[in-house]
Amino acid sequence: MGNVLKDKVAIITGGGRGIGKAIAEAYAREGAQVVVTSARNKREIDELAARIQAFPLLSDITNKDDVDNLVHETLRRFGTIDILVNNAARGMRFVNERFMTDPRPFWEADPDIWQMVVNTNINGVFLVTRAVISHMLKQKGGSIINISINLETMRRKGFSPYGPSKAALESMSLIWAQELEGTGINMNILLPGGATLTGMIPEAFPQEQKALLLKPEIMGPPAVYLASQEARGINGKRIIAVEWNKENGIVI
Length: 252
Prior knowledge:
Radius of gyration: 17 Å
Distance between the termini: 29 Å
Largest sheet: 7 strands, parallel
Strand order of the largest sheet: 3-2-1-4-5-6-7
Strand content: 5-15%
Oligomer: single chain
Structural class: alpha/beta
Shape: globular
Helix content: 40-55%
CATH superfamily: NAD(P)-binding Rossmann-like Domain
Number of helices: 8
Number of strands: 7
């Protein structure tokens, strides 16, 4: 175990699987106290928490009361919040189970599912960040990492509303980063750099093609770096994990 994040407290939304889980594991290895959330899958976060000694908490990020409780419980247990990873998101599987092989036009989407995706991926990020930021402003420091996707996916046929919701996330991130200048709080965007083997990939997706996808663990090293003291002052950047190299600097 390292100590890059020793004594730091991190909240990772959607931390029970995929990218969130990989980042939670990386943070725990570096000595952070980790809070992992899930909207409904308690078993996943309980199993992860037991293994990496994290604190699991059911929390629907689209529910303000849940979000307020998440922040309250984190502060009650650890006394501070140093890092927020906005990872929780709803993907295209909810809209169209065959989106990878059979893209469908936006007008065939169920309006209730559309609203769920947008509410989670945009409004949920706002609610959690808003709740955490008040504490970070008081302590005059913190790191916020918003998990995004490739620009190509934002524009791809059949990827509404997931692609547009992530485009909105990136716009929010860049605006908010400007508003945070001078506060000691850094906000950055982190994305894998390609299709990644997460729970968003349909079960029916061919195994031979799954083998070609990026592994979620690729997000660990840059996520640790962005949360560390070494990255203090890096703000409003868009970092692609497959291109990131600590030794050669950040590739934007």
